From TrEMBL:
Main location (coarse class): other
One protein family per Pfam: Peripla_BP_2
Compartments where located: Cell envelope
GO biological process, any: iron coordination entity transport
Protein name (database record): Iron-hydroxamate ABC transporter substrate-binding protein
Keywords: Signal, Transport
CDD domains membership: FeuA (cd01138)
Source organism (scientific name): Paenibacillus spiritus
Family note: Belongs to the bacterial solute-binding protein 8 family.
Residue span, Fe/B12 periplasmic-binding domain: 76-326
């Protein structure tokens, strides 16, 4: 098994590297859109080193970058990516990404869990992880792999169900992951049949989201419940959505084109604290689905993942809302 550097050694290594790379330029800019490191008070490296060790025993996980030896029962997981999938399997987290930390579905489950990023290496070291899960687009993957076994995934490389199965394999909980997948598919298929009996086999559904200036329409694999509606339930999308959003995952709309992409029913993803003036216009109000009261609103922050907890939440929400419509 690869020997991981101690937390104190890693701190010294990172400090030395930082000093060696400082040529007096004063350039501390980071890439736009990168989450800022957590500003929470830090524990000492010696305290991290004395934290309870992970359970003994390892397994070899066949990751997309090759075999990685990981704990058979990880006890201190830092999930920079796919944290909700870990939560759904009862994984023991000590660090999560910013977006999971802000998600209202996970607030109660993440009390006292530190928010970290791929750039807050000292924070991660002090958490003394025994497993790190990251995205392939993240920075410092080599440095992360020196802190603890690091498994990298490419978002979208696997569909949402197979991604859950892979996380199950990683956590040595493949049977649990597969059982949820089988059960979810059965429940969603049954709900889809009930909904189509209510709204019609050929009724179409569009999923919209907005920010202050723009509208977006989504295909079948960009969260916001799209996997539930189109893949699991088998509901239909309008031809314009199929043409422009199915391939890339989403499509940006000008306000005047929104009606062209509206189905018989609309799922509207509403981000907290954000308004778009278009929602108050006659153009929006005169869309048939809006006039007929066929709009289902969801919270953007609670629907931006495709993990079991989110999917089960949206499956119930959609089922209740569609079946209650007149």
């Amino acid at each position: 098994m690869k020997k991981w550097l101690t937390p104190l050694a890693l701190v010294l290594l990172l400090v030395t590297a930082a000093c060696g790379n400082n040529n007096g330029s004063g350039n501390t800019n980071t890439a736009a859109g990168t989450a800022a490191p957590s500003q929470a008070p830090e524990a000492s490296a010696s305290a991290a080193a004395s934290a309870a060790p992970a359970a003994s025993g390892t397994i070899t996980y066949e990751s997309q970058t090759g075999p990685v030896e990981v704990p058979a029962n990880p006890q201190r997981i830092v999930a920079l990516s796919f944290a909700p999938n870990v939560i759904s399997l009862g994984g023991t987290l000590v660090g999560v990404d910013e977006w999971t930390g802000k998600n209202p579905l996970f607030t109660d489950k993440l009390k006292d869990i530190k928010v970290v990023s791929d750039e807050s290496l000292e924070d991660i070291i002090e958490l003394n992880p025994d497993l790190i899960i990251a995205g392939d687009y993240m920075k410092n993957l080599d440095k992360l792999s020196k802190i603890a076994p690091t498994v990298v995934y490419t978002w979208g490389k696997l569909d949402y169900l197979n991604q859950q199965i892979e996380i199950g394999k990683l956590l040595n909980k493949a049977d649990q992951a597969q059982a949820w997948v089988d059960d979810f598919k059965s429940r969603a298929e049954a709900a889809g049949k009930d909904i189509k009996a209510k709204i019609g086999e050929n009724a179409t559904v569009s999923v919209f989201e907005y920010d202050a200036k723009s509208f977006y329409v989504f295909g079948s694999n960009w969260a916001r419940g799209t996997e539930v509606l189109y893949q699991a339930m088998g509901l239909k999308m309008p031809e314009a959505v199929k043409k422009d959003a199915l391939g890339p995952g989403y499509y940006t709309l000008s306000n005047e084109t929104v009606p062209q992409y509206a189905g018989d029913y609309i799922v509207l993803s509403r981000p907290a604290g954000t308004d778009n003036a278009f929602l108050g216009t006659d153009t929006w109000k005169n869309i048939p689905a809006v006039k007929n009261g066929h709009v289902i609103e969801i919270e953007t922050e609670a629907s931006s993942y495709s993990d079991p907890i989110t999917l089960d939440h949206l499956l119930k929400l959609f089922t209740d809302a569609f079946l209650a419509m007149k």
